[in-house]
Write a structure and sequence with these properties.
The chain is of the alpha+beta class. It is about 35% helix and about 30% strand. It has helices at about 1-40, 45-55, 110-115, 120-130; strands at about 60-70, 70-75, 85-90, 95-100, 130-140, 150-155, 160-170, 175-180. The protein has an 8-stranded antiparallel sheet with strand order 4-3-2-1-5-6-7-8, with helices on one face.
Length: about 190
């Protein structure tokens, strides 16, 4: 009987001391997994990934794509001229449809739909010229600039500058490029 008491007492001491140690060891072992999951949750969806997600949800041609906080706004035009506004979550990559213009206006988008260079190709060209992260891409066929249609690609470079790159829609070559110099997109270019 006395032996049982000693064994029980010893077991109680081991559990009392070992319990917190075991709990701490278990928590320490789980911590890297928790950090990895938290890090993965903060991973940003790139412009290229946002474009791919948008086109998967709504096949067509990207007219514009821009980052606004934790959301990518993507305008897609289908081959029949239907215009769809999508939002891509910059963390999860989830796509939601915000608006769709059901009037088919292929004539209004004829130059965009016929362009040899896509928004995705323009982003690649801009990044090759100015490494960084694409922050926006927009189709520009406004004739008041004295040029043919271009893709306007905004790249945030590693040195904190915002590089505005204009890519030819027929050749995928950089037509012009300028920098705002301070990394702030204040609209005063």
């Amino acid at each position: 009987m006395q032996r049982t008491t000693y064994v029980s007492a010893a077991a109680a001491v081991v559990l009392a001391l070992g319990g917190p140690v075991a709990a701490a060891a278990t928590a320490a072992a789980a911590a890297p997994t928790a950090l990895t999951a938290a890090t993965a949750a903060r991973a940003d969806v790139t412009a290229e990934a946002a474009a791919a997600a948008a086109l998967k949800a709504s096949p067509g041609v990207i007219e514009s794509l821009d980052r606004d906080g934790a959301v990518w706004h993507v305008d897609v035009v289908s081959k029949d001229g239907t215009h769809v506004e999508l939002e891509v979550d910059a963390v999860s990559g989830g796509v939601t449809k915000e608006n769709q213009d059901d009037e088919q206006k292929a004539d209004d988008y004829a130059s965009l739909l016929a362009a040899k260079v896509t928004a995705e190709q323009a982003m690649k060209t801009a990044l090759a010229a100015h490494p960084g992260k694409v922050w926006s891409v927009e189709w520009d066929d406004d004739d008041d600039n004295g040029r043919a249609a271009t893709w306007n690609v905004e790249v945030k470079t590693a040195d904190g500058k915002t590089q505005n790159v204009h890519v030819d829609t027929a050749t995928a070559k950089v037509v012009s490029s300028d920098s705002d110099g301070d990394g702030n997109d204040d609209g005063n270019d």
